[in-house]
Amino acid sequence: MDLPVDEWKSYLLEKWSLLPISVRLAISTAKTLSDVFLLSSSLLQPEDEIFLKRLSRGYLVGKDPGAPLFYREEGNKKFQEKDYAGAAVLYSKGVSHSKPNTEDISLCYANRSAALFHLGQYETCLKDIIKAQTHGYPERLQPKIMLRKAECLVTMGRLQEASQTISDLESNFTAKPALADSPFQSLQRNLHHLKMKIQEKKNLTETFPAALAKAFEDMDLREENEQISSASSSVTLCTDPLKGRYLIATKDILPGELLVKEAAFVSVLNPGEVQPLHQALDSKWSTRVTNGDLYCHQCLKHTLATVPCDGCSYAKYCSQECMQQAWELYHRIECSLGGLLLTLGVFCHIALRLTLLARFEDAGEIIRKLCDETSHKDIYLPESKNMVKTLNYGQGESEENGNIVQTPIPGCDVNGKYENNYYAVFNLLPHTENHSPEHKFLCALSVSALCRQLEAASLQALTTNLESSKLKAAVTPEFCSDLDIWGVAMLRHMLQLQCNAQAITTIQHIGSKENIITDSRQVRLATGIFPVVSLLNHSCSPNTSVSFISNVATIRASQQIGKGQEILHCYGPHESRMGVAERQQKLRSQYFFDCNCPACQTEAHRVAAGPRWEAFCCNSCRAPMQGDDVLSCGNRSCTESMSRDHLVSRLQNLQQQVDMAQKLLRNGKLEPAIRRLLGCRHDAESFLSAEHTMVGEIEDDLAQAYAALGDWQKSATHLQRSLQVVEVRHGPCSVEMGHELFKLAQIFFSGFAISEALNTIEKAEKVLLVHYGPWHDDIQELQKMKSCLLDLPPIPVGPSM
Ligand SMILES: [Zn+2]
Ligand SMILES: [Zn+2]
Ligand SMILES: [Zn+2]
Ligand SMILES: [Zn+2]
Description:
This protein is mainly alpha-helical.
């Protein structure tokens, strides 16, 4: 997903292997990125471009005139099944394939407004009604939509406007009596009903406070750092030859304190499992819902009511404003390149967008200068360390009052300030010397093919007499005149991304409405670049926690951090998720360093019994089993031994059993699911440690099954066992623990076990606040549960749960 699709990758790797050795050698030993780029791009042949174009055409990114009707009908089916969210998304797909100002688009918007109405999203519903009307909603259907508008306004308490809408509707009737034919009677009834409602509401003397608008105040840093934008004043930027740049605490920091709050400089939504057309055999139009259908492509906000780009079907936004912004900043150039960008992958897409954004910082000059300067230096030296002078911004080193101004830390401006800007991004390390020549060739040719397409698009825009000035302005001649320089910059960005790309994640709650316990899982939403977050070094047991709201990253202390200690963040390989060898290998191959964090040091010396959540135990005495190929019981008085292969295959069998049970659970076959899960648990007990991840998973599933049956007591008992497993693996203050406590709180809450619920809510809140801060959805939900419980009248007698 980050790199180009496999077909293009293997095509280029084959091309590489067929190159004469002398050419490969020239590229491998090229001294600068600019040489790598120029040497490689001279090898891009027309047939390569044809091959790439064929791959790109496989994606449906334009507007398909047949699609709106198809999606509207599919949406209507979901609507009939009362799956309003599902319906809304399908109507959105219809919208994205419709041309502006057509009946198609207005009908899709109108249908979507109905779905949103049922979902209680009145504000968005109103917006859709207005959109339907401005795009030419048919006269004959007007009464229906105006009635919905009135209902919406009444529900929102905007009574004046509601009355106005109703009288408009009525005058519409008298003016065009033909309208009032068949559905007239029921419409009259509805109108009457609504008027009564308005009167009722007016009679309520008490005025309710406006909706519970969530202020996002807390989201701000208490005191912003003067040296580093987006960071708190509790940290400072340091640099040294070994570590490069890093952040340390300038004072004692408490768990939960917000340290960095930074909007992505660029983010590109991960398209999800977009399949090229030739692979999706069943239908040209997919009804599958991906991230691309649910999140704004500009700000990453979740929405069921996307607004599409006028020119393509793949770019969708949460609002007109985001659409406009994206268009101005980058999309007018990307719009026609959708298929190509999907083929070349997210990194290439980000690289393009970075250079497009660079135009607004007058960065053409920066890039030219930097590329020029770096081409004279040996950029294969460890860069951040000695590049300071080379990358000095603007004037270079200068003299002021006879004193030589100290050279700033790379990425900082002349005043030593580090900001979320293109200059800082450009200074992130590409680690050119560490990437394999094949990889550099792959990136260089992909970028170069993209440049040729940009050139072609700009020529076309210049030569064709398109009245659309939008498109004409799209690719400006200045942008193309220096495509080679922009190409080198893009190549640099592609190489930087391997170490500096940040996965933007969100917590998705899975489980249908009938499920009382929502299971949450982290999903990768987008890939972004955050110059300030990039300053943090890695640890396998970090002292911070990162989370996202839309495209804004927040980093909070997850534990106490003493003054002078380094602020550390985990790049992915966390000690609770993988063993030391795997982590080391991953960090070396992706980030080019040997991790020396305390977790790695202690684990490397520990005898290899493996972590408890992966441990096998003795069949007869339950002591942990130890050893490599053959494991023997750790209890000296016991003689049990077992081959690892045997244990591993037992574990695989068990996994299959659990998978089957989960399938039953998903299909609502609760009793058979429970029977099977109890069998699995029995089996697990005979050879897995009590804290084995698999045991936790089984307990968690049992908890879910019992909750669905309404047996709160059993459900809670099983979840508490799962909680123990999570605690051993991730620690009592981990975000994973927070999610598990959240589930337990839901169970107690639904079982009206008031004191247990309040107690668990408090624990969950305490843990989650540290990681997420007060405005996260989960925290809000916990608070709602709490106030609901506190408002309940005391229940005199009854079971404890
Ligand atoms: Zn948006
Ligand atoms: Zn577009
Ligand atoms: Zn480590
Ligand atoms: Zn034993």
